[in-house]
Amino acid sequence: MKQEMKCVSCGKKVESEKNWVEFPCPGCGKVKILRCEKCKKLENQYECGKCEFVGP
Ligand SMILES: [Zn+2]
Ligand SMILES: [Zn+2]
């Protein structure tokens, strides 16, 4: 099953965006965290759906 390509902070789809980041969750390392440029800039909080790690 394909993981949905959306920002974990705002839920916006990043597929059509140019600038977004993808990195493994710092908490569990098993989940890919996607963030759009806006949330990265604003340092919006995100939460891992697996280990409930919350981070900027
Ligand atoms: Zn976002
Ligand atoms: Zn995690």
| Low-confidence spans | none
Beta-strand percent range: 25-35%
General form: globular
Mean pLDDT value: 92
Main beta-sheet strand count, sense and barrel state = 2 strands, antiparallel
Q: What would you call the structural class? A: alpha+beta
Strand line-up of the largest beta sheet: 1-2
Instruction: Compute the number of structural domains.
Output: 1
Helices and strands, in order, run as: EEHEE
Give the end-to-end Cα distance, rounded to a whole number of Å: 27 Å
Number of helices: 1
Bound molecules: zinc ion
- Using only CA atoms, what is the Rg? 10 Å
How many extended strands?
A: 4
Which percent bin holds the helix content? 10-25%
Q: Secondary structure elements and their pairing?
A:
Blueprint: E1 20-24, E2 32-36, H1 37-42, E3 46-47, E4 54-55
Antiparallel strand pairs: 1-2, 3-4
One zinc ion binds at residues 25, 27-28, 31, 48, 50-51, 53.
In short:
The protein has 1 helix and 4 strands. The chain has one helix at residues 37-42, and strands spanning 20-24, 32-36, 46-47, 54-55.
